[in-house]
Amino acid sequence: MSDLDFSQPAEPAKKPAAPPTPVRQETTLYDPKLALKFFQIAGELEVFSAGDTIFAEQAKAGGLFSKGARIYLLVEGQVALTLKQKPLSLVMPGEIFGEVAVIASAPRTATATARKNCRVLSLDEKRFLGSLQQAPDFALMLMSVMAQRLRMGVERMFAARTGPAPIAAHAAGLDKKMLAELQHEMGDPTPTPARAGETIVNKGAAGVTMFVVTTGRVAISVDGMVVEHVGPGGTFGEMALLGGAARAASATAEVDSTWLSVGRKDFLATVKAKPAFGIALLRSMSERIQYVGKLLGE
Q1: What is the arithmetic mean of pLDDT over 69-88?
Q2: Which of these, 100, 151, 83, 101, lies nearest to 292 by C-alpha position?
Q3: Hey, CA dihedral for 149, 158, 207, 257, is it positive or negative?
Q4: Which candidate in 14, 15, 105, 288 could, as Cys together with 63 as Cys, close a disulfide (CB 3.0–4.6 Å)?
Q5: In angstroms, rounded to a whole number, what is the distance separating the alpha carbons of residues 61 and 10?
Q6: Does residue 167 contact residue 290 with C-beta atoms inside 8 Å?
């Protein structure tokens, strides 16, 4: 599949008859070359004709451990995402789609229809895990993109003056076994303690690591308003792993707590050795995004 190249457009650009639908990948954190590399490792090439439905809203994606669940990367053409027959966004070559519902083991939140003749690369569970072991940096990028999407959702709630309700604790975070494996991969460091009321990180501070709560509970707040409660196995500060991002929120221990600071090198090594680690974090992020979407009525 070495002929797949996104350095040039798949076809000459044409003047649109109407303003184009905003592209869904709204963040510069997304790297199409890295996504292509990841999908080329084990992706299956599929072809859809204009008008074909790739997947339908409310269809049960079933999660990565369900037969038939697939995540897609668009190689050529255009894919329209709609909800209740209303346009949501347009997927362009080099972009992925269908990832949130699959990773979160939730029904599809939109319908994907080939707007033009399309070629896509798709990954099922086995292929996804195989690619993840060879290109763990894809999990890092995708998690960071999801983290920014979550941040944007919270910002929209502030703008709408609805006030973000506390997001549920990370039910799909790392379990005790995964926490132990992560700690072992990092050389068995002693988790850092924080007393109740102690600030772990301040909004605006520079950061290069993410945090994993090992015991206790941490409140994540923006401008004094709590937007999330993070319990054991939960994470925060993920976007910093891409390098030098300013912290988008403050974190304060609500009760006596402990946490691990995970750097990029440790993250990549752990995902490569234990792909399930990356999937668990992606699933946690997906569920948080869906929760905020429900609060926004999306």
Answers
A1: 93
A2: 151
A3: negative
A4: 105
A5: 29
A6: no
Estimate to the nearest angstrom the gap between the alpha carbon of 291 and the chain centroid: 13
Q: What is d(CA 62, CA 233) in angstroms, rounded to the nearest whole number? A: 23
Q: Are 202 and 250 in contact, with CB atoms under 8 Å apart? A: yes
pTM of the model: 0.74
Indicate if 137-295 has the same CATH topology as 32-134.
yes
pLDDT tens digit string along 188-219?
Answer: 999 999 999 999 999 999 888 999 999 999 99
Give the C-alpha separation, 127 to 47, whole Å: 18
CA distance 100 to 90: 16
Residue 200 CA: distances (Å) to CA of 83, 221, 256, 260, 277: 40, 12, 12, 11, 24
Whether residue 171 contacts residue 232, with contact meaning beta carbons closer than 8 Å, is answered with no
Strand duo 71-76 + 96-97: pairing: antiparallel
Work out the pLDDT band at 99, boundaries 50, 70, 90: confident
Identity of the amino acid at 149:
R
List Cβ neighbours of 166 (8 Å cut-off, separation of 6 or more): 226, 227, 228, 229
pLDDT of residue 291: 75
What is the crossing angle of helices 275-295 and 176-185, to 10°?
120
Q: How far is CA 27 from CA 23, 149, 238, 281, 293, in A?
A: 10, 8, 15, 20, 18
Task: Please report, for the chain, the start and end positions of each structural domain, with discontinuous segments joined by +.
Answer: 32-134, 137-295
Q: Is the pLDDT of residue 63 over 60?
A: no
Query: How would CATH label the architecture of 137-295?
Result: Sandwich (2.60)
User: What tokens were used for 1?
Assistant: 């599949």
Distance CA 290, CA 282 (A): 12
CATH superfamily label, 32-134: Jelly Rolls (2.60.120.10)
Cα separations (Å) of 292 from 141, 156, 167?
21, 10, 7
Q: Token match 């929209």: residue?
A: 156
